[in-house]
Amino acid sequence: MNMVASKVIEETAKVVVGREDETRLIMECLLAKGHTLIEGVPGVSKTLLAKSFARALGLDFRRIQFTPDMLPLDVVGGFVYNQGKGEFEFRKGPVFTQILLADEVNRAPPKVQSALLEAMQELQVTVEGFTEALPTPMMVLGTQNPVEFQGVYPLPEGQLDRFMMRVNFDYQPVDVETKVLRRNLAALDVSEVNRVVSPGELDRLLGEVQKVSASEELLDYLSRLAARIRSDERVELGPSPRAMVQLLHCARARALLDERRYVTPDDVKTLASEVLTHRLTVDRAAALKGVSRNPEAIVTAILDRVEPPR
Question: Could you report how far apart the first and last alpha carbons of the chain are, in Å?
Fold first, then answer.
């Protein structure tokens, strides 16, 4: 694996045990210039991993705890009156950072969720005709509880599509949870995580992702995969062209971390579930036909049927 990514994963693992695969996925998403939605029940290290990841990279970090009574200005900022100057001035909200932890994003009402849309897509904020650019690199790590929890608002399709990946934080296996318990015999301190990546190293990696090539056969494979998913009888709304572009970018980032300058079908297959499944709308009538409505199962089955390039 690429040395820089290895250092980030190892440093994060000082306080977050057993989440190396998830950390790699988030690193790939960052290098692909995307945002990650982290889903899992409370207490599975979502917030701790986000803080540790930002510290290992040495990037500015801010956290928003989303609640039902939030307003959009609590996220993006707004104009306030400066009595000393006798004029209104723009006060930046917490979105003006490099790593933003949008904690329990699905607890905020839809109006607040949509306030993130422009920031995530355009890397800028517009308030009352005033536009301010966000710092770069900029990544939103949104965490959410499963939709069956009380007090949550399901993210609309437009918001979900802004997240390049959705990474599930499941319960750990028994042996890993034993390590977690052993690690927590002493108090966890995120300050144990040191910066292991210089700004120059991160900028270099971001540039090198753009140099990773994808053959015409690989691009055709992605197109055939998208068409097959969209035409599946179980799928009501398939992945958009933007979703397939983002899958390509993520695959390029994975190839780079594996120290390759070209994308393989295995890169696509490995990341397809994280990049595509949260964008699928499954036909509700499929359940009545006795067909699986699980998006992960649908994508996995289609990957087995679409012939990859040799």
Answer: 24
CA distance 303 to 300: 5
Q: Is the model's pTM score more than 0.85? A: yes
Residue ending a domain, choose from 170, 201, 232 = 201
87 contacts: CB under 8 Å, gap ≥ 6: 81
- 8 Å CB contact between 40 and 46: yes
pLDDT string in tens for the chain (310-residue length): 899 999 999 999 999 999 999 999 999 999 999 999 999 888 888 999 999 999 999 999 999 999 888 998 999 999 988 888 888 899 999 999 999 999 988 888 888 888 888 789 889 998 888 899 999 999 999 998 776 566 677 787 878 888 999 999 999 999 999 988 998 888 778 888 999 999 899 999 999 999 999 999 999 999 999 999 999 988 988 999 999 999 999 999 999 999 999 999 999 999 999 999 999 988 877 655 555 568 898 999 999 999 999 8
3-state secondary structure of 170: coil
We report the CATH number of the domain holding residue 286 as 1.10.8.80
225 and 157, same structural domain? no
Dihedral in degrees, nearest 10, Cα atoms 304, 305, 308, 310: 100
Q: Containing domain of residue 262, as a range?
A: 211-305
- Tokens 């920031």 correspond to 119
